[in-house]
Amino acid sequence: MFRTRAAGVRKPVRTRFVRTFLFTLFLVAAVGISMADAGPIGGRVVDPEGRPVAQADVLLLRGSTVVAVATTDSDGRYGPIDVPGGQYDLTVVAPGLRLAPMRVRVAEDAPTHHDLRLTLAAYQEAVVVSAAQIDTTVSRAASSVSVVTSQDVDRLQARSLADVMAIVPGIAAAPSGTVGAQTSLFPRGGESDYTLVLVDGVPQNGFGGAFDAAHLSLANVERVEVVRGPQSALYGSGAIGGIVHLVTRAGGPPRASLSVEGGGDGTRATTASASAARGPWSFGGGFDWLESEGDGRTFESVGGKVRNDDYTRLVASGSIGWSDSPDRRVRLDVRGGRNERGFPGPYGSDPLGLYGGLDTISRGINRHAAVAASALVRGRGLAHRLQATWSDAWSDYVSPYGTSEDRVDRLTGRYQVDAQAAGIGLSGGAELLRERARNSFITDASFGEIPVERSNLGLFVEARPSLHPRLLVTLGLRSERIERRRLAGDGSRPDFAPSVVWSTNPKLSAAWFLRTGTDGSWLGETTIRASAGTGIKAPTTFDIAFTDNPDLRPERSRSVDVGLEQHLWQSRVRLDATWFRNTYDDLIVAVTQPLAGASRYRTDNIANARSAGLEIGAGWRVAAVLAARASWTWLDTEVLGVDTVPDRAFGFYEVGDPLVRRPRHAGSFELQFTTDRVSALLLVHQRGAMRDLEPNFGSEVVTNPGRAVAALSASVRLARGFELFGRVSNLFDRRYEDVYGFPAAGRRLIVGLRAAAGN
To answer: Which residues lie across from 475 on neighbouring strands?
Structure first.
């Protein structure tokens, strides 16, 4: 990776990239013009007993690209799918079932028929849109990808993104209290602002990457895609450690759901969702209201019951789409909501005796709104994709010292062109982001509030050559131009002139299918995956506003991972393991007295750290009604010396220390039981001891003990369309703290009723 400045440093490198980018766009257009005539393909999908499988998605792939999707009817029939003649891979997406990708040949202008018999599987295929510049599948993705489906969300009875992260390896979620408490995500040892979070392609992070996972509702969610490792070659600044992408449901057969629930700690919730298609039109939407009175237990530290721990959330979303053929599609998404929470302070562990008593004043109120428009147009072998988004987020925080406000508004525009010909897939395009942040504490010399404004222009190319039928390779490159607008001084901060930074981030990933698993033996598919790439994260609002350094650069990462996936007994057992290593450079830290010789500024890009680890997963479909799944992550982090002073570390760290709030061991175990009438899930989540901060002033490092916590959820169908469900979280009423000083909720029983119609 390299960086160039507006002053002209290494300008020829920048020029060469732009020329390469333009040449690649021309090449994409050139290779896509010649395509063969279309041929139809169809057939029937059945389960292991020969019964039809309805509402299954039949996928046709060329290389790693999903080129066509068809949904089966009530008799399991799909098609006809019209695709250009040639060779494809055929697979199916269906809960609890799987078809090992099979090679088929489609003749030009001649019907092709394939009946597909699925097998029981511990692993469900899924389409993912976040692991490459095109739609692909989990089995064909060369990156480390996990998908949490809507069926998983229902079994977990998850209410927010923080709930589902418990079953995803490699990303540690750290909630600072009970329902609605601030929850940070730490990807593979990276910082809490290193994960780019999207909802239907709309960024959810704050200015510079901050994200609170407690408030993101799962109403009407179709799947949650988690891509680990730096993805800046795809998404630019912010995707330095990984991506979490919520994809909502729209279109398809008419379906609707309404649930109400209530239980311990004054918890009440209502969730509704609906989706349908009529002619060329498709619709989808969701509504979520959640309220909790907070921790109802008694603590000596507060002299009674906890107060000011309540939480309220209201979120609504909707989408409308139009498509009169597979070659034309437009969609409009809207989303908005509000949440409010009290902050009683760190009333838990207090080793230094610094806790001053329950805070009954501090409260946070967050509001957000977003609109996204997207389009897909295919013709002459090319696919043109366009997207534009607008989002606005407001935050008000009331404390004993007064009220502060924060607001971030953002505009994005993206264009991409794709082509597939001569055994190679190519994509290229550009993305523009403009964002502005305002905060009560960011002022000029006369104490007037001033905005921090920034724009990012990303130029990207990606190639997916088919070097061998069993080898998929993806090469991506993105050059980012990050411009900060002029910022007036505040007396201690000098006036900052406009600043421009260029950063180019490559990524190379590959998947090698050692075995295809189509011979029927007990040893099924074997896949090796490997990737290497770099990532960046631009400075935050406060990084920019509270420094005398006009030239802060993005923080950077370099990453490599290698993984093995093995299927056994026709995918009824699935094992996987991934080793990774990350190096984090140019971390922005305060230049304290021990580091006085490292920089002439108050803050600078001088700190470094690394992480390495192993992610292991296993799944077993014991029978059609019984399945088990487990994951475990071992993580090793280390603080490295700062630039020019290698024997000194930043902040309160010593060289060689582990990073705080990164547990060395973490894992989960799920046992699922599912029939037509009854389902149940036992979930156990474990976290080892980890270093943490003294909770009042962060004045020293402490040890946060490990914990294991269990949850049980179940549902029973009372009658057609009506379901009774319930869950018990913290089943054994353990007292623990995921963030030191902030107790997690005790045992809590929630019971609800769901009414559903449609498929």
So the answer is: 463, 508
Q: What are phi and psi of 162, to 5 degrees?
A: -60, -35
Question: Do residues 113 and 251 both lie within one domain?
Answer: no
User: What residues pair up with 625 in beta bridges, in sequence order?
Assistant: none
Residue 129 resides in a domain: no
Last residue of a domain, one of 57, 88, 120: 120
- Beta strands 281-292 and 499-515 are unpaired
CATH number, domain with residue 56: 2.60.40.1120
Residue 125 in domain: no
Dump pLDDT digits (tens) for 178-223.
Answer: 999 999 999 999 999 999 999 999 999 999 999 999 999 999 999 9
As to burial, measured by CB atoms within 10 angstroms (0-12 exposed, 13-18 middle, 19+ buried), residue 191 is buried
Q: How far apart are CA 509 and CA 167, in angstroms?
A: 25
In this structure, the strands spanning 499-515 and 523-537 are antiparallel
DSSP secondary structure string for all residues of 232-254: HHHH-TT-SSEEEEEEE--SSS-
| Cα–Cα nearest to 624, from 72, 54, 47, 46 | 47
Examine residue 1 and state whether it is found in any structural domain, yes or no.
Answer: no
Query: With contact defined as beta carbons under 8 Å apart, do 175 and 739 qualify?
Result: yes
Domain count across the chain: 2
Residue type, 498: P
Radius of gyration of the chain (CA): 26
Q: First CA to last CA across the chain, in angstroms? A: 49
Spatial separation of the C-alpha atoms in residues 650 and 671, rounded to whole Å: 43
Q: How does DSSP classify residue 759?
A: -
Cα distance between residue 325 and residue 144, in whole Å:
33
Q: Residue 639's pLDDT is what?
A: 96
Among residues 328, 212, 351, 308, the alpha carbon closest in space to that of 692 is found at: 351
Kindly give, in sequence order, each residue whose CB lies less than 8 Å from that of residue 25, ignoring residues fewer than 6 positions away: 417, 428, 429, 461
How many Cβ atoms sit within 10 Å of the Cβ of residue 601?
16
Residue 618 lies in a domain: yes
CA dist list (Å): 311 to 81, 344, 548, 630: 49, 12, 38, 32
The CATH number for 271's domain is: 2.40.170.20
**Strand pairing of 626-640 and 665-674?**
antiparallel
Read off the pTM.
0.93
Q: Are residues 116 and 265 in the same domain?
A: no
The DSSP output letter for 225 is E
C-alpha dihedral (162, 165, 166, 171), degrees to nearest 10? -120
Q: What are the tens digits of pLDDT across the range 70-98?
A: 999 999 999 888 888 888 889 999 999 99
Among all chains, which residue has been given the structure tokens 């507006």? 6
Strand partners, 428: 417, 461
Distance of CA 683 to the CA centre of its chain: 21
- Joined tokens for residue 341: 């929470």
Tokens of 419: 């082509």
Q: Are strands 116-117 and 144-149 parallel, antiparallel or unpaired?
A: unpaired
Cα 22 off chain centre by: 30
Other Cβ atoms within 10 Å of 461 Cβ, number: 24
Among residues 77, 100, 120, which one ends one of the domains?
120
CB-based contact 39:106 (threshold 8 Å)? yes
Residues 588 and 604: beta-carbon distance below 8 Å: yes
The domain in which residue 82 lies consists of 38-120
The one-letter code for the residue type at 366 is N
* Residues of the chain where predicted confidence (pLDDT) is lower than 50: 1-11, 13, 31-36
Surface-to-core class of residue 510, CB atoms within 10 Å of its CB (0-12 exposed, 13-18 middle, 19+ buried):
middle
**535: number of Cβ within 10 Å:** 32
Instruction: Please tell me the distance from the alpha carbon of residue 689 to that of residue 707, in angstroms, as a whole number.
Output: 8
Q: Does residue 531 contact residue 28 with C-beta atoms inside 8 Å?
A: no
* Residue whose token pair is 């107060």: 307
Residue 714, SS3 per DSSP: strand
